[in-house]
């Protein structure tokens, strides 16, 4: 098979992966706290005895766009948005600690503080629980206070504090469940006392839908060009075989 086919095929495969990432970003344009996925690619020259005129396309380590999304003020006491850099620690379904910017919280039937998709929110001492039926207030430092039904302001009791961390951007990576986790070998994270939250607000997705649509069109054109190269190489191969068979 013509070696051009392999070269074009590597580019077409990575273009499909890029298109899948862009489509996922576009599907999450309304997801609270979503970070756009970024796929990186690089050209790798083919090493051999022939003249180095070819290069394959290989995927580099995928990452995420870490810029903040827009804020929406909801005035709901259990909605929080992290101000500036920082992440909210939660317990994933696998039991491991994960990090998210999605701050739409709720209180479960057993008093557990949960995210909108049912994950336990972590405090400095583990999962946070509040007295059932109490009114919950979250301070800008992540302190959680609760007031029981019928109690006065003097009845406020601190029940915990959100575990807020601020890892370096290259120390965390997105998992298949949408949570970010520490990369292998990264140092464990300590609670960052300087991270602040905004109560009664939510951070939206940082995906720009116009840019995502433009990227989808560009990827489609790029894939079409690579397929034409593969088809051209295949046609040349068939003509060469026809000439050789006529000898």
Features:
single chain; 247 residues; alpha+beta; five-stranded antiparallel β-sheet; three-stranded antiparallel β-sheet; 20 strands; elongated
Largest β sheet strand count, sense and barrel closure = 5 strands, antiparallel
Overall pLDDT, averaged? 86
What share of residues is helical?
Answer: 25-40%
Low-confidence stretches: none
- Head-to-tail CA distance between termini: 20 Å
Backbone structural class: alpha+beta
Proportion of beta-strand residues: 25-35%
What is the molecular shape?
elongated
Radius of gyration equals 25 Å
Structure description:
It is elongated, with a radius of gyration of 25 Å. It has helices at residues 3-27, 209-245, and strands at residues 37-38, 41-45, 55-59, 63-64, 71-73, 80-83, 87-91, 97-100, 105-107, 113-115, 120-123, 126-127, 135-138, 143-147, 157-161, 164-165, 172-174, 180-182, 196-199, 201-203. By secondary structure, it is of the alpha+beta class. The chain contains two helices and 20 strands. It has two domains: 3-65 and 207-245; 71-203, no CATH class. Strands 7, 8, 11, 12 and 16 form a five-stranded antiparallel beta sheet that branches. The chain has a three-stranded antiparallel beta sheet with strand order 13-14-15, with no helix packed on it. Strand 11 and strand 12 (126-127) form a beta hairpin.
């Amino acid at each position: 098979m013509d070696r051009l086919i392999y070269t074009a095929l590597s580019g077409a495969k990575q273009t499909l992966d890029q298109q899948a990432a862009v489509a996922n970003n576009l599907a999450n344009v309304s997801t609270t706290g979503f970070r756009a996925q970024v796929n990186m690619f690089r050209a790798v020259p083919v090493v051999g005895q022939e003249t180095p005129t070819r290069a394959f396309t290989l995927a580099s380590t995928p990452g995420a766009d870490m810029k903040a999304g827009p804020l929406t003020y909801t005035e709901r006491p259990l909605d929080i948005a992290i101000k500036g850099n920082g992440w909210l620690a939660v317990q994933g379904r696998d039991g491991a600690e994960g990090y998210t910017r999605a701050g739409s919280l709720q209180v479960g039937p057993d008093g557990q503080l949960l995210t909108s998709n049912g994950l336990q929110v972590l405090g400095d001492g583990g999962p946070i629980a509040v007295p059932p039926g109490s009114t919950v207030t979250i301070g800008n430092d992540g302190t959680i206070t609760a007031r029981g039904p019928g109690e006065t302001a003097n009845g406020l009791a601190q029940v915990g504090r959100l575990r807020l961390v601020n890892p370096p951007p290259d120390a965390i990576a997105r998992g298949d469940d949408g949570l970010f986790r520490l990369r292998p070998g990264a140092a464990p994270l300590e609670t960052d006392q300087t991270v602040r939250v905004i109560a009664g607000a939510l951070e939206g997705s940082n995906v720009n839908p116009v840019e995502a649509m433009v990227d989808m069109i560009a990827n489609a054109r790029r894939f079409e060009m690579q397929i034409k190269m593969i088809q051209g190489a295949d046609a040349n191969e068939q003509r060469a075989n026809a000439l050789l068979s006529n000898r």
